[in-house]
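Ticket #257: bound-state structure for L-MYO-inositol-1-phosphate.
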Amino acid sequence: MKEYAVELAKRAGTVLLQGFKSLAFIKNESKDPRQLVTKFDLESDKIIIGGIKRKYPHHNIHSEEAGFINKGSYYTWIVDPLDGTGNFTKKNPFFSISIAIQYKKEIILGVVYAPALGELYSGEKGQGTFLNNNSISVSTTHEVNRSSIVSCEGSDKNITRYTILFRGIRPIVLDMRKLGSAAIESAWVACGRAEAYIVTKINPWDIAAGVILVEEAGGKVTDFKGRSWNFNRSDLIFSNGKIHEKLLVKINEGLIN
Ligand code: LIP
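RESOLUTION: The complex was predicted; output attached.
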């Protein structure tokens, strides 16, 4: 399944990269200006969903574009065919494809492919995390004031929550950045470019692959109450494990409710 997930991500990535490199204006197909959907999200979705249906017709699929296809299986493929659509439409290379496989309640495989960056992350239960076939691990930093944090508000319509979080966390860390692709942000924790990724109201397809990338790279993923990830939990911290509790304490000082 890992090889096939990688193959599908690469196939979809080729199409996305063609669109990204073309000079044509990329239109938002959605009526809501905050809800970006381009023809490339849909094309990429078709490639990935079509591929899963052909090879694993009995598996469930949950994709950002196609919704939930329930086959009553223990296996569910969780797919974001284009994560970071906003970046993509602005010719910013930070966009990716995210494919995860959940078995029962647990994520067992994750692939994040950022074609314009030439980076393919993969993680498998008990097998570690890899960036372009090189084993990667989370950063060893213990000090919050030496930590780089990536963060975003996900699909939170109440922007005040994120603003309060940013105001509380920013003064105690070295740096705080927003990359515009949740899948890439979680992958950055897995490879040690950031000590943590803090996100509010994120959709499961944006970060399901990131959960296993970070865990298999030696990190930790919980919600703001310290509970492990599940499909319905959306206020999340992905970290190197060493600064996790300190950030949780800060968040629970009343930054977010
Ligand atoms: C996007 C995320 C981004 C987040 C947006 C959105 P999409 O995913 O990855 O980081 O801030 O709210 O969810 O919609 O491009 O797949």
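RESOLUTION NOTES: The domain at 2-136 is CATH 3.30.540.10 (Fructose-1,6-Bisphosphatase; Chain A, domain 1).
TICKET STATUS: resolved
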